[in-house]
What we know:
Rossmann fold, alpha/beta
Amino acid sequence: MNNLLEIKNLYLEAYYEEKWQPIVHDISFDLKRGEVLGLIGESGAGKSTIGLAAMGYASQGCRIASGSINLDGIEMFNASNKDLRKVRGSKISYVAQSAAASFNPAHRVIKQYAEAPVQHGLMSSVQAEKEAIELYERLFLPSPDKIGYRYPHELSGGQLQRAMVAMAMSCKPDIIVFDEPTTALDVTTQIEVLAAVKEITEKMNKAALYITHDLAVVAQVAHRIMVLRNGRLVEMNETRELIKNPKEKYTRELLNVRSLRENKTIHDKMDVILNIKNVAATYTGDKNVVEDIDLTVRKGRTVALVGESGSGKSTVAKIITGLLPANNGSIKFLGKELPRKLKDRVKDDLRKMQMIYQMPDTALNPKQTVRKVIGRPLEFYFGIRGKEAEEQIRQLLVDIELDPDHYIGRLTTELSGGEKQRICIARALAAKPDLIICDEVTSALDQWVAEGILDLLQDLQNKTNMSYLFITHDLATVKAIADKIVIMLQGKIVEQGAKKEILTPPHHEYTDKLLASVPEMDPDWLDNLLEKRASTFI
């Protein structure tokens, strides 16, 4: 088979410290039809940079310095903008890491799907919308004939990510660059997207670059895996061989990093810090999206809120913070009944309860420096400015394992996804809260960085007796840090209890489904699971 994509001796540079400096060094690979090449490595390894370069694109402040990027006979390096516009979307497309930042909030999702095929002259808008609905169904989006007519903010993170996968397929490209496409997805939805990737490449004879930090995930879809570190190739091999017999120390470390261990100090006194009773809420004024919500968070403890995309986890967080006023029920925080609306709450209540959002791209002001972002809560809540603020900002950067000298003056747009999320965490910590609501805070991080963040959060909890409400779909994280687990399904709590109790069989039927959906470090795991599911319905 002829190669669809050939990249040879690729070098990329970034402009910082008033000069161009290399960030990707001498990368070469090829890609055939029906093949998936996995790109894996920690945050800053150059995975996304290489994926974008395959499209002849470099992010702001970066450039393709040298090398060859041949896409089905078309040289992408130094191609004209006119030629690149013809190729992008029609021959190669891109699924971004952050779907929320990639959609136009002013237009309905299905209209954005139709834009590319209409512009390329492939079909009418009516035909494009018809095909969109078919793809939504294949990607297991709820109400596929209706969901596309919603605006992006009306979809959950997982739903939006699947809608973006569909949009990337709208022009039927030969190659799709998947940049962390399952980052925002719960484990059950992740399976459907991975199954769709396999179908796209195998049955439709397409090719894909699959960028991720999760080796167990990429092992399910990739034929070969390229391991990257600091912009350099560490190792490349067929998936089975790389997992079975990694040649390099760094690859072996990536394989072993998945084992998270709990290291928690148990405090004798565990007063209730947050108590929610009979809470319900709606977005539209009609049917409740969540109801009968009862949960408690104790001081110095971590409660994990777990469930599929759209189950109501983030909605509960919005209710607690006052961003979505509850219809009924009570929210008590530090023994005090909180007003349902954010605007009715006093400043000190706002300070004591902080939230870290799922999508750092949309949570940070792109025009502000790291100094400004972290310094804002210090000034707002404590009136701290100048030299004192500078010292505290630097210490917070040290706490989240970022070099103050290197990061304090940088714009947030100059940071990787993992670095942005760490800045969000530092901003929350700056307020010195009693409770932090963590909404998928490790979803955009590579596993090493995620472990570092979890260790940091755990250490802070041990030192300060801080409490966490941890919203996540990552059951490895739940096993590592949670004291209590709350399982949600379709807006209701179906099970809750101590971690040991919830994770020990027999499980609730839905909990069992979640646990069975966690990928294993076995290339046959997904195929076996899909085969088992198919046999169940025969």
